[in-house]
């Protein structure tokens, strides 16, 4: 009995000992030290085995007794296996409790790191896995710093992505890489949880930079990690973007592509992750738990559950608030330090040379073009080579040509010399827009030209423009629409380039007014390099418009100052309507203008100019206030000081405006270079003949949620059996003929008959027949 | 009538045969008789005799069944004289030595017997594998299962009997530390009250063995073997010449320059801590008699003295062994 009692106290397995040591480290110091030296001796055995195995392979090469050697290598390998479990257990134990004995185990973490770094080739997988997890645990306990852990993890990650290692027998390279990578990400996530750990971030980023400096393909891990961290919003500064620029310029195609895809997709990815995060919010339902606790039996376990749930919710709310605070919504392209240099190098290194091109296939090259054009468009850069580079690919037979067209449109902006763009536009017009090509091709060409011209109005010559606009008479809908949209674009930005009959009423009036103001001799055409944008407050025109609309309802104090202006607005109430009911009015204008044009043609030209001037001078004042940002800026910012309330309203209006835009309503034609040209939209609406299945599917879609039509005859409302009345009606006539109810009817007096009939009629009326 | 014989035969073929109780059914018409007669039959794959190739039975040393392991060990012991000079010895020992930490007592017992046998037949085999031995003995000394820990000294005793010099030279400090741990004397001394440990270590039967082994170890480690041998036979004339050359000759033990760690795989130690003083530059300290003596004197002597005295007071078998140890210590220091 006594023996047994003692055995109960004695720790004879490691888990038990771990428990005891954790509770009372001082008392069990001796046992711990014993286990620690056990670990040391096991480790030594391991080291020796590893050495023996390398030695024996050497021997096997020399030949000799083959059988004996085979046995020997076997034995060594298997000896290891036998004690792997023990060593794994011990390492786990020591790393669990080593924070209790910092002095004795000072070397422990260092040994683990060395084992992993220097002997990872000979260690079995379980052991490596255990060491990795123990190191992570030690980091969580604060025994080693995050920097130390990262310095261990990175070299391993690289070692295991090398060809030689991953091909080795039982190396489990893939699993290890996954494990290490996940460890890295969670480590960085955890250390950036509260506030950003700038020191760690910087050192890790430095490692990434170094990796990308090397010519081999190891940099892929740096790129992958950076992208992942960007996606999670952990890294969001310009250094991160700098890493990716280095990746994008890397010689290795894989790395370069990952960098390029980062710039193209990263922001979208990031938004998606944040949306997802906000979606899976209501995992823990605290209220339900509370309710359950009230109803069910009250146990400690349930109470604990509730407490945990509340804690997690609190924690989540905290972190969520912080991430929202920390998270700056700058897109990667905006954070570039030297966009011009980056773009030039990217173009030169990946698309420039003729030979090196072969390392990217077509899709990848398109991705590069997209990135380049987006960069050029966003930052208004000057990389002239790219426009001639596009020429090569702009043929209808090129695969994914719409993407290339979209990219080429994206790459245009008003600071590019018109000569270079004119070549591009000419090429598109020649290749895509002619009578010999399919409708979709022509539509795509026209739409691309429109996109280019909306960014750089001078990119097209007048004659070509006028030729292209002739396509508005085309019978194909896509082409027709594309030509019309090109026309309306030029009505807005440069009506003087259009033919007279195409200009439309308002545009013509504008021209005439301008001509009157200036000398007739002076050219009023658009010119390259003339600054047209005016510095303003974003969204101010919306505020101005709103003010004008609401000034009519409530008279402000400031009316005295702005009297004239508001008066004129009073008059132009219709004007406000014109903006909101856009499509209708546009149509009217079209009709008007054509009418006008006809009139003008009939009249003398000299007369018409002066006539118009006289006739429409009144009109002009009404349409004088146009909601351009420039005028709004002058109107508002110059005359009054904006209050915070104004700014609040402004923000509200801006969001409203954005929503409208999203829904496809083109309110103000603000030409934003950052908007991405949609490649799929370039082709325009294409309508093919539907198959039967499609047609039926569409019909069925329309019928969804409505009851079936058709006769209700013979259908009973609610389920019931036949009533007595119905049964009576169906009875055989001969059977009924002698019944009193029938014979009695014949014998009824006239008065009684009348009574019955009257009663019947009133009854029917009550029923509503 | 009038049917010919042929017709009758034909008809017979299609008649149903009547089965009768107690009589065998007729054999089918296409039956072949395969019986034959021979003087003797030899089947190659059913030899009842044991296989001669012992190397194939090495894996049985890791068999999950303890009896199989034990029997395999005994089997090898039986065959030892045949294989002692062959290449099989190295794999055998590398397989057998890990059994020092085997759970089963009988397996460990038979392993000791095997090792004794090996030692008797050829000491050099043991000397060659000395480092593996030391590692595993050391592991056993710190094993969490008490029985294995207790038995570790028996293995050490066996090893000391045959290659004491090599053992002491390789792992003097390691083994001393281990032994003291097994005895429960505590390396750091501040934990004497750790009750469970103490009572366990007082198991007198084992303590005697431990003490004997410790005595043996100290004797081997701190006394000069040459002196002992010279007491027996005096051959100074020949040795005289040798003595002057000796420092410049290659050492007569295996791996004389091991302490340089030219080919060893070890982990670097960056921080020097308390443990390092004891276990740090072990290999250097083990090398020669003088350093061993000084270290022992500095760090262990007083502690062992104290413990030995207390055991002597308790008396019994342990007391006797402790007394022996004390005498030895007095003699040496």
Automatic annotation (TrEMBL), chain A:
Record domain SDA1 middle: where: 578-702
Cell location: Nucleus, Nucleolus
Protein's recorded name: Protein SDA1
GO cellular component, one term: nucleolus
SDA1 C-terminal domain residues: 720-766
Comp. bias regions, Acidic residues: 608-617
Record function comment: Required for 60S pre-ribosomal subunits export to the cytoplasm.
Domain of life: Eukaryota
Single GO biological process annotation from the record: ribosomal large subunit export from nucleus
Biased composition (Basic and acidic residues): 703-726
Pfam families: SDA1_C, SDA1_dom, SDA1_HEAT
Protein family per UniProt: Belongs to the SDA1 family.
Keywords annotated in UniProt: Nucleus, Protein transport, Ribosome biogenesis, Transport
Spans annotated as Disordered: 551-623, 703-732
Ranges where the SDA1 N-terminal domain occurs: 93-475
TrEMBL record, chain B:
Superkingdom assignment: Eukaryota
One BP term from GO: rRNA processing
Pfam family, one: Ipi1_N
Disordered as annotated region, ranges: 1-33
Key words of the record: Nucleus, Ribosome biogenesis, rRNA processing
Major subcellular site: nucleus
Pre-rRNA-processing protein Ipi1 N-terminal domain mapped to chain residues: 126-218
GO CC annotations, alphabetized: nucleus; rixosome complex
Comp. bias (Basic residues): 1-22
Compartments, record wording: Nucleus
Similarity-based family: Belongs to the IPI1/TEX10 family.
Subunit description: Component of the RIX1 complex, composed of IPI1, RIX1/IPI2 and IPI3 in a 1:2:2 stoichiometry. The complex interacts (via RIX1) with MDN1 (via its hexameric AAA ATPase ring) and the pre-60S ribosome particles.
Described function: Component of the RIX1 complex required for processing of ITS2 sequences from 35S pre-rRNA.
Name of the protein this chain belongs to: Pre-rRNA-processing protein
Gene of this entry: IPI1
């Amino acid at each position: 009995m006594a023996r047994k009692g003692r055995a109960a106290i004695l720790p004879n397995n490691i888990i038990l000992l771990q428990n005891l040591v954790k509770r009372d480290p001082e008392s069990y110091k001796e046992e711990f030290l014993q286990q620690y030296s056990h670990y040391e001796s096991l480790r030594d055995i391991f080291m020796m085995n590893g050495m023996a195995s390398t030695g024996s392979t050497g021997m096997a090469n020399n030949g000799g007794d083959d059988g004996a050697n085979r046995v020997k290598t076997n034995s060594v390998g298997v000896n290891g296996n036998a004690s792997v479990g023990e060593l794994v257990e011990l390492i786990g134990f020591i790393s669990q409790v080593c924070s209790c004995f910092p002095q004795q185990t000072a070397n422990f973490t260092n040994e683990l790191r060395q084992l992993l770094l220097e002997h990872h080739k000979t260690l079995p997988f379980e052991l490596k896995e255990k060491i990795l997890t123990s190191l992570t645990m030690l980091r969580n306990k604060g025994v080693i710093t995050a920097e130390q852990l990262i310095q261990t993890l990175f070299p391993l990650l690289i070692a295991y992505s090398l060809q030689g290692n991953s091909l080795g027998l039982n190396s489990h390279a893939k699993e290890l890489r996954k494990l290490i990578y996940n460890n890295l990400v969670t480590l960085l996530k955890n250390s950036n949880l509260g506030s950003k750990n700038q020191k760690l971030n910087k050192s890790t980023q430095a490692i990434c930079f170094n990796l990308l400096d090397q010519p081999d393909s190891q940099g892929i891990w740096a790129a992958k990690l950076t992208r992942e961290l960007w996606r999670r919003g952990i890294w969001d500064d310009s250094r991160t973007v700098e890493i990716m620029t280095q990746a994008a310029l890397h010689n290795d195609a894989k790395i370069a592509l990952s960098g390029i895809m980062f710039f193209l997709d990263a922001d979208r990815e990031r938004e998606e992750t944040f949306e997802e995060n906000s979606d899976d919010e209501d995992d823990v339902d605290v209220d339900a738990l509370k309710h359950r606790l009230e109803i069910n039996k009250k146990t400690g376990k349930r109470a604990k559950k509730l407490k945990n749930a509340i804690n997690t919710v609190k924690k989540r709310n905290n972190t969520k608030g912080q991430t929202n605070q920390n998270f700056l919504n700058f897109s990667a392209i905006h954070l570039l330090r030297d966009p011009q240099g980056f773009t030039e190098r990217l173009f030169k290194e990946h698309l420039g040379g003729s030979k090196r091109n072969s390392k990217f296939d077509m899709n990848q090259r398109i991705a590069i073009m997209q990135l380049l054009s987006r960069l050029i468009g966003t930052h208004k850069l000057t990389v002239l080579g790219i426009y001639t580079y596009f020429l090569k690919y702009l043929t209808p037979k090129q695969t994914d040509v719409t993407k290339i067209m979209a990219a080429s449109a994206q790459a245009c902006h008003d600071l590019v010399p018109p000569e270079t763009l004119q070549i591009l536009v000419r090429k598109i017009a020649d290749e895509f827009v002619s009578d010999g090509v399919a409708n979709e091709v022509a539509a795509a060409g026209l739409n691309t030209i429109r996109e280019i011209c909306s960014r750089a109005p001078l990119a097209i010559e007048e004659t070509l423009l006028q030729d292209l606009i002739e396509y508005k008479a085309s019978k194909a809908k896509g082409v027709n629409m594309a030509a019309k949209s090109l026309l309306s674009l030029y009505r807005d930005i440069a009506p003087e380039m259009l033919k007279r009959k195409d200009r439309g009423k308002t545009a013509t009036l504008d021209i005439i007014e301008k001509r009157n103001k200036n000398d007739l001799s002076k050219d009023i055409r658009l010119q390259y390099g003339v600054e047209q944008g005016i510095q303003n407050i974003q969204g101010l025109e919306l505020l101005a418009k709103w003010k004008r609309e609401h000034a009519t309802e409530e008279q402000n104090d400031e009316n005295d100052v702005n009297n004239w202006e508001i008066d004129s607005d009073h008059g132009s109430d219709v004007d406000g309507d014109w903006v909101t009911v856009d499509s209708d009015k546009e149509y009217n204008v079209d009709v008007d203008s054509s009418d006008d044009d006809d009139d003008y043609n009939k009249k003398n030209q000299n007369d018409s100019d002066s006539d118009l001037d006289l006739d429409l001078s009144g009109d002009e004042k009404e349409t004088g206030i146009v909601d351009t940002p420039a005028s709004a800026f002058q109107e508002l910012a110059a005359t009054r000081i904006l209050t915070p309330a104004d700014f609040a309203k402004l923000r509200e209006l801006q969001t409203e405006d954005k929503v409208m835009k999203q829904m496809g309503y083109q309110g103000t034609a603000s030409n934003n270079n950052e908007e991405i040209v949609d490649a799929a939209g370039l082709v325009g609406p294409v309508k093919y003949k539907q198959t039967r299945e499609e047609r039926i599917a569409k019909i069925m879609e329309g019928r969804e949620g409505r009851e079936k039509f058709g006769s209700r005859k013979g259908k009973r409302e609610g389920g019931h059996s036949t009533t007595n009345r119905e049964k009576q009606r169906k009875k055989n006539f001969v059977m009924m003929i002698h019944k009193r109810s029938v014979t009695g009817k014949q014998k009824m007096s006239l008065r009684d008959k009348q009574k019955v009939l009257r009663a019947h009629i009133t009854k029917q009326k009550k029923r509503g027949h | 009538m009038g049917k010919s014989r042929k017709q009758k035969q034909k008809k017979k073929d299609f008649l149903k045969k009547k089965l009768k109780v107690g009589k065998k059914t007729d054999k089918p018409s296409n039956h072949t008789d395969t019986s034959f007669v021979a003087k003797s039959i030899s089947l190659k794959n059913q030899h009842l005799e044991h296989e001669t190739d012992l190397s194939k039975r090495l894996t049985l040393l890791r068999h999950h069944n303890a009896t199989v392991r034990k029997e395999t060990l005994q089997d090898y012991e039986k065959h030892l004289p045949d294989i002692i000079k062959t290449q099989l010895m190295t794999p055998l020992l590398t397989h057998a030595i890990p059994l020092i930490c085997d759970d089963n007592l009988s397996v460990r017992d038979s392993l000791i017997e095997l090792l004794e046998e090996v030692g008797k037949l050829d000491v050099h085999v043991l000397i060659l594998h000395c480092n593996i031995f030391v590692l595993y003995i050391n592991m056993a000394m710190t094993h969490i299962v008490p029985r294995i820990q207790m038995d570790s000294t028996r293995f050490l005793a066996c090893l000391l009997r045959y290659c004491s010099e090599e053992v002491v030279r390789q792992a003097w400090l390691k083994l001393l530390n281990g032994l003291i741990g097994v005895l429960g004397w505590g390396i750091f001394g501040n934990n004497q009250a750790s009750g469970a440990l103490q009572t366990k270590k007082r198991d007198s039967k084992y303590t005697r063995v431990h003490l004997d082994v410790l005595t043996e170890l100290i004797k081997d480690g701190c006394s000069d073997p040459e002196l002992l041998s010279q007491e027996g036979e005096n051959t100074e004339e020949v040795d005289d010449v040798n003595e002057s050359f000796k420092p410049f000759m290659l050492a007569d033990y295996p791996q004389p320059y091991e302490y340089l760690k030219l080919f060893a795989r070890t982990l670097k130690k960056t921080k020097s801590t308390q443990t390092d003083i004891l276990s740090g530059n072990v290999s250097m300290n083990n090398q020669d008699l003088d350093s061993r003596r000084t270290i022992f004197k500095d760090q262990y002597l007083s502690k062992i003295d104290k413990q030995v005295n207390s055991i002597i007071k308790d008396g019994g078998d342990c007391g006797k062994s402790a007394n022996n140890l004390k005498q030895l210590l007095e003699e040496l220091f």
